[in-house]
């Protein structure tokens, strides 16, 4: 079964715009699950621009709700993650000035640090994924440092598709990285910038077992409703 992870960061973005409590990301997490989401993704950023510490704590304590917590390798954030114990961790690069996560981790530069962080999560039996660019070298390093999964950054592919440019080379990079990861027994996930069209394109890569989708899904929900949009994505993922 291919899984859909619903990223609810932007429910918190809307809430934070008013500095009050509505719309509540905890409610969104439970609602998404009822509508068919297989897991919930939240990103506790160092600048706390969307999800806050109290959201993280509450969402990670909801029963029967698999939570994928995205975090940077900052030691204070890692410490919080070890305390709230989500089901899954996804390590991502973080740059204070970026609007959203701009690329995959720099694994060459941070190999030892990442290996140490993964071993801490392994001790707590938390599945750890690395957000990487579609690169064979990065897949090999992911194996070396002990990652359970990789999440391939699909932002470049999404951009090429949306701007009607030739995306076959980028799709091949994603495909080859997925094939290698699968051979190395690393589970493959994909995320960033995905909409209905790009998700459909990626479902052709049979090694991808999980899609994590946020911005477009929340944006479409304004027009068509959260429940309907989640169901639409589930249908696309199921069809293959
Ligand atoms: N996966 C990861 C690792 C991310 O950092 C993000 C963005 O927070 C997403 C998926 C979701 O991307 P988008 O909001 O563009 O769908």
Short note summarizing the structure:
With 240 residues, the chain is α/β, with parallel strands linked by helices. 50% of the residues lie in helices and 17% in strands. It has a single domain (3-238), classed as TIM Barrel (Alpha-Beta Barrel), CATH 3.20.20.70.
Throw out a few tags for this protein.
240 residues, alpha/beta, TIM Barrel, 8-stranded parallel beta barrel, 8 strands, binds pyridoxine-5'-phosphate
Explain how this protein is built.
Strands 1-2-3-4-5-6-7-8 form an 8-stranded parallel beta barrel, surrounded by 8 helices. It has a single domain (3-238), classed as Aldolase class I (TIM Barrel). It has 240 residues and is α/β, with parallel strands linked by helices. The mean pLDDT is 96. Helix 5 (107-123) runs parallel beside helix 6 (136-144) and helix 10 crosses helix 11 (226-239). The chain is built from 11 helices and 8 strands. The protein has helices at 9-18, 25-34, 53-60, 75-84, 107-123, 136-144, 155-162, 168-183, 196-202, 215-224, 226-239; strands at residues 3-7, 39-43, 67-71, 88-91, 127-132, 149-153, 187-191, 208-213. Pyridoxine-5'-phosphate binds next to strand 8 and helix 10.
List the helices and strands and how they pair.
Elements: E1 3-7, H1 9-18, H2 25-34, E2 39-43, H3 53-60, E3 67-71, H4 75-84, E4 88-91, H5 107-123, E5 127-132, H6 136-144, E6 149-153, H7 155-162, H8 168-183, E7 187-191, H9 196-202, E8 208-213, H10 215-224, H11 226-239
């Amino acid at each position: 079964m291919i899984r859909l992870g619903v990223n609810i960061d932007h429910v918190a973005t809307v809430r934070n715009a008013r500095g009050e409590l509505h719309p509540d990301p905890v409610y969104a997490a439970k609602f998404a699950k009822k509508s068919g989401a297989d897991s919930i993704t939240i990103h506790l950023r160092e600048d706390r621009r969307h999800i806050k510490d109290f959201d993280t704590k509450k969402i990670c304590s909801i029963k029967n709700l698999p939570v994928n917590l995205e975090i940077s390798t900052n030691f204070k954030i890692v410490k919080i993650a070890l305390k709230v114990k989500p089901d899954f961790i996804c390590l991502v690069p973080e740059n204070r000035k970026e609007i959203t996560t701009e690329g995959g981790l720099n694994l060459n530069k941070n190999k030892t640090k990442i290996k140490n962080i993964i071993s801490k999560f392994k001790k707590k039996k938390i599945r750890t994924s690395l957000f990487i660019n579609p690169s064979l070298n990065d897949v090999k390093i992911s194996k070396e440092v002990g990652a359970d999964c990789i999440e391939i950054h699909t932002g470049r592919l999404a951009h090429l598709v949306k701007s009607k440019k030739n995306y076959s080379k980028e799709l091949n990079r994603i495909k080859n990285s997925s094939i290698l990861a699968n051979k190395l027994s690393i589970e493959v996930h994909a995320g960033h910038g995905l909409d209905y069209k790009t998700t459909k394109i990626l479902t052709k890569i049979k090694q991808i077992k999980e899609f994590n989708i946020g911005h477009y899904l929340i944006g479409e929900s304004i027009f068509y409703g959260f429940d309907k949009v989640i169901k639409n994505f589930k249908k696309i993922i199921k069809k293959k």
